[in-house]
Specification:
By secondary structure, the chain is of the alpha/beta class. The chain has eleven helices and eight strands. Bound molecules: SN-glycerol-3-phosphate.
Length: 215
C-alpha cells in the first residue's frame, strides 16, 4: 500500500519523508491556503522533498479552463498530478488530459457511480472522501469496497486514494481491502506508529540493560 501525506506543510512533509515510508503528497485549496505562502514556490518545495506523485488541485469550473489550468500546473514539475473535482466538466477535462498523458486525481468522489465514470474517463487516481461520508452518517469504507470491486471487475487501471482520513482505523481498513493508496493527515500518521506498549517495552529493556555487566 502506498502512503501519501494529505498536507501542504513543508515541515510536516519533510518529517514524514524522513521516516522512509512516504510515497506521495496530496494538497487541496484549503491545505494550500493554510500555509499563507506563494503557491508555486510552495509546490516546488514539496516536489523537492518527495519524489512521487504530488496532487495539486485545479480550481476552474469549465472543461476548457480546467484543461488550461491543468497544463500550466503540470508544467511545474514532472511529478505533478492534477486534482479535478468530479463534475461533468471535470470528466470532460479528465478524458482530454489523460489522453495527453497528464495524470488526473479525480477528487470529491462520494459514490460508486462517480468512481466508475472517473475510471472510464482515464483518471489515474480516484479519491473517495471517507471521513466526510462518515460525518453525514454514511459508510466511507463501504464506498471504498464498492469502488475496488468495480475497478477489479473490469480491469480498470485507476488507483484508489482513500482520502478524508480521520483516524488510523480508516487506513488499516483500507489496507485490508487492498486499496492502492491512503492519503493521511500528519496527526493521523503520527498516531499510526505509536503504541503505549512499545514505549513501556523500551523503558523496561533499558532498565534491565543497566544491570548487564560488560556492556
Ligand atoms: O485532500 C482531500 C481530503 O483528504 C480532505 O479531507 O479532512 O478535509 O475531509 P477532509
Amino acid at each position: 500500500m502506498k502512503i501519501f501525506i494529505d498536507s501542504a506543510n513543508v515541515e510536516q512533509i519533510k518529517e514524514v519523508a524522513s521516516w522512509g515510508i512516504l510515497d506521495g503528497v496530496t494538497t487541496n485549496p484549503t491545505l494550500v491556503a493554510k500555509e499563507k505562502t506563494e503557491f508555486k514556490s510552495l509546490i516546488h518545495q514539496i516536489c523537492d522533498i518527495v519524489d512521487g506523485p504530488i496532487s495539486v488541485e485545479a480550481v476552474s469550473l469549465t472543461a476548457d479552463e480546467i484543461i488550461n489550468e491543468a497544463r500550466s500546473l503540470a508544467a511545474l514539475h514532472r511529478n505533478i498530478v492534477i486534482k479535478i473535482p468530479m463534475t461533468e466538466e471535470g470528466l470532460k477535462a479528465t478524458k482530454k488530459l489523460s489522453d495527453e498523458g497528464i495524470k488526473v486525481n479525480m477528487t470529491l468522489v462520494f459514490s460508486p457511480a462517480q468512481a466508475l465514470f472517473a475510471a472510464k474517463a482515464g483518471a489515474k487516481y480516484i479519491s473517495p472522501f471517507v471521513g466526510r461520508l462518515d460525518d453525514v452518517g454514511h459508510s466511507g469504507m463501504e464506498l471504498v469496497g464498492q469502488i475496488l470491486d468495480i475497478l477489479d471487475n473490469y480491469d480498470l487501471e485507476s488507483e484508489v486514494i482513500v482520502a478524508s482520513v480521520r483516524h488510523p482505523g480508516h487506513v488499516i481498513e483500507a489496507a485490508m481491502m487492498g486499496a492502492h493508496i491512503a492519503t493521511v493527515p500528519y496527526d493521523v500518521l503520527k498516531k499510526m506508529f505509536r503504541h503505549p506498549l512499545t514505549d513501556v517495552g523500551i523503558e523496561r529493556f533499558l532498565k534491565d540493560w543497566e544491570k548487564v555487566s560488560g556492556r
